[in-house]
Design goal:
The chain has 2 helices and 5 strands, in the order H-E-H-E-E-E-E. The chain has one domain. Strands 1-2-3-4-5 form a 5-stranded mixed β-sheet, with helices on one face. With 191 residues, it is of the alpha+beta class. Strand 4 and strand 5 form a beta hairpin.
Amino acid sequence: MGTGQMMMIIGAMALLATLSLSINSTILGKYELIYETEATIDAISLGQAMMDEALTKDFDANTVGGVKLYLPTGLTNYPLGPNASEAISGNDSVNIPGTTGYNSSHPTKLQFSSITRFNDFDDYTSYQRVVYTPRMGRFYLRDTVFYVQDDYPDNPSSVRTFQKKITVRVWHPNLKIPITVSDLAIYRRYF
């Protein structure tokens, strides 16, 4: 084998190595995109489920049991949130593998403490939940609830109104940025 042939073999090997690295990075990028897409879909579903749960509760602590208010001044003042008997310390989670409370004989316990302890919409203020999915692992959710004005539903209002907004932020290791979902609760619909 001559020097020319050896140079061609070395060049071919370098070209093959470059091509191989390029294909590997493309495959890796494809799988990262697939995991991020799956995490996004799961995060939106989990955030929507939490909002749906909150929207099933009474509008305010002062309207629990069918009490009707005709002025917003009768609603709960800031700070919003659960009272002492409803409070949940730390993250609310159910039967997550690798945690102290995990029970493998009942792997699908699906009831969070918020379902039975919270009775009104704004109890979800600063509420945190950890949800475990078998395929994607742990998702971390945190709620914010605040009053809003009719004209500015994205900005917190400093005064009580008949509209409250819930924002749920969902984090997961496969998400580059947290997913945020939100909805409005309007007191008129409770009449």
